[in-house]
Amino acid sequence: MAFRFRLPSKLLHWLPNSQPSDLTWPSVLTTLVLNGVLVGYALLAPLTPEVKRVNLGFGLGGWVLTCMAFRWIFPHSRTRLIMYLGLILNALIILLAFYFHTVLLPGYTTVLGITLIILTAVLYGRRATYGLFATVTLAATGLYAMGWLHVKNLWQQAMLFFLTSVLLTETVLRLRQSYLQQLAHLNTLNRAAEALASTIEYHQVINVACSLVQEALQADAYYLGLVYGDRMRLELIYDQGEFFPPTEISLEDTLVTHVIHQGKPLLIHDMEIERCKYKKQVRYVGQPRMSQSWLGVPMIVGGKVIGAIVIASYRKHAFTARDLWLLENLARQTALAIENARHHLKVEERARLDSLTQVLNHNAFLEVLERELAQARVLGSPLSLIMLDVDHFKEYNDTFGHLLGDQVLQLIIETVRRHIKRTDWVGRWGGEEFAVALPNTTGAQAYQVAQRIRETLRQVHVSDRTGNPVALPTVSQGIAVFPGEASEVSGLIDLADQRLYRAKSRGRDQIEPGPRHWGVEGDAEFSVAPAEPKRDTAKVPIKTH
Question: Which of 269, 285, 380, 383 is buried most, with the most CB atoms less than 10 Å from its CB?
Fold first, then answer.
């Protein structure tokens, strides 16, 4: 069972608000115990009155000074004035102990000096500790030369004290540095957990994760990539003070591919030497330079690798095992946050879609239409709206059944999507009525889209319960255009809706207004803006290695 020292609650109330560093407790406790032993020695040992007074004075004075230091000096140890005061006080205590070492409890001076050296190293660092040692040495030499200090084998004692001080100082400073780094890493992980838990927005989670990586690790470049099939999308790319646009890379035989497939982190200290060991290709994203140090860790959720975080440096041996440990933990937290954000995004997306046809529902379509019309107003571009209604759909359902009716609605949406661009929007307005928003599309172009939808639907057939082919019902369509015919969303919808019902009143299977209204002769072919090709991802170099 591990022993843990706890102060009494009454004493804790007396202590300053800022809790002392854990590393000072051994020194403080040693000083209190040491001076307690000295007081006991003074009271119980058969000593002369003069020796008893010296030991008792040192013991009680040591208690008082330790409590005062703990109360007023330690909490403000980083203040320059307090630091100098603490160093002077430590030097005086050590010199006094050396001066009275012949009458003090044997070994007291050595233990006290070592304890104060360790305490100085913990509180003030290397320079202050060696400065304290130099001050004590020079002062002791001066007192010895004046005959005020009587120490046998002074130089041997000084050399022993020096070697012991160096050994203890360097050991303590290494432990202190390791402790502070570990504490900083734990604080980073705590802040990461808080920051990542504060949002469920997908892109914000990625930005937060990359900000934490940049803050916690000294790297020249980093990126966060998510796996989609046989490709990886680099969501955020940073290289030497510059951010690059997101890009996609194929999961070829590179170092990041090795991390993804193995599901284990990979740390490379010297790229020129170790790259040959792994026999991987080199790809550049970001600056067209090869990094010298490289660290990649997978992001894993439920045993599945969903991506990776990679950091790189142009210096060799830039990353340590501690960096790997920290990045692994950050990647684990980030993976969970990304998975939660993805789930939230899917839930939100499902809430915006019609469950049967998977197009936007009424409210979601209205939001999109408002946004697209506002953008069209800023750009000075047209926007066309088609309101589409399935003719005699109730009779169709009554005749062939609702299951076939649902299939018909799905086929109509598939047909609509075949004739619109990727930037266009489809929404279910209600029942068997749909709306199609066509940004940057004139009325004549919208009429041609509507005509092609109408003609395609005439050629589509489904099978009834007995397997016999059944033609799809016809559709009626009404078109309105911003800004030529309506200046607001409500006016655009009202006009398209009025024209839809006019088309139905004309006998259905109609498009209103007709071709002459748009300057199209009959149903002749009209040049329609082609569907936008899929944009190629920007080819920006990054060190995927």
Answer: 383
